[in-house]
Design brief:
Blueprint lengths: L1 E6 L7 E7 L2 H6 L10 E7 L5 H11 L9 E3 L2 H15 L18
Antiparallel strand pairs: 1-2, 1-3, 2-4
């Protein structure tokens, strides 16, 4: 899964779609935001988190002050990257393996 920042012909200055997808090429080809040939992904980062809806909700909460639509934000691109990378550093981490304690001695049954 990838988190991405997408811009397009109809977006306007400093307006971006920020979301997640399993397939970046399909996202670019989508005509969801019109003029798919003019859409451009400006930033991507591979993520480990496996629940896309929960991830989008949590990321969106970090971007609330910039939100202008469902997945659309009015924010400077560098600020958006910084928010995403800081969020991933905090949130998108592999769980630590469970440590099992080895017992000493014999077990009696």
């Amino acid at each position: 899964m990838y988190v991405y920042i997408l811009t397009g012909k109809l977006f306007g200055k400093d307006i971006y779609e920020i979301s997640v997808t399993d397939d970046l090429s399909k996202r670019i080809e989508s005509d969801e935001v019109g003029y798919p040939n003019d859409n451009k992904i400006l930033f991507t980062e591979k993520i480990k988190f496996h629940d896309p809806e929960k991830f989008k909700k949590l990321l969106s909460s970090r971007l609330t002050e910039f939100k202008i639509g469902d997945q659309y934000y009015k924010i400077k691109i560098e600020s958006a990257k910084k928010v995403i990378l800081n969020f991933l550093e905090f949130y998108d981490v592999e769980p630590k393996p469970i440590q099992t304690q080895k017992s000493k001695g014999c077990l009696w049954f």
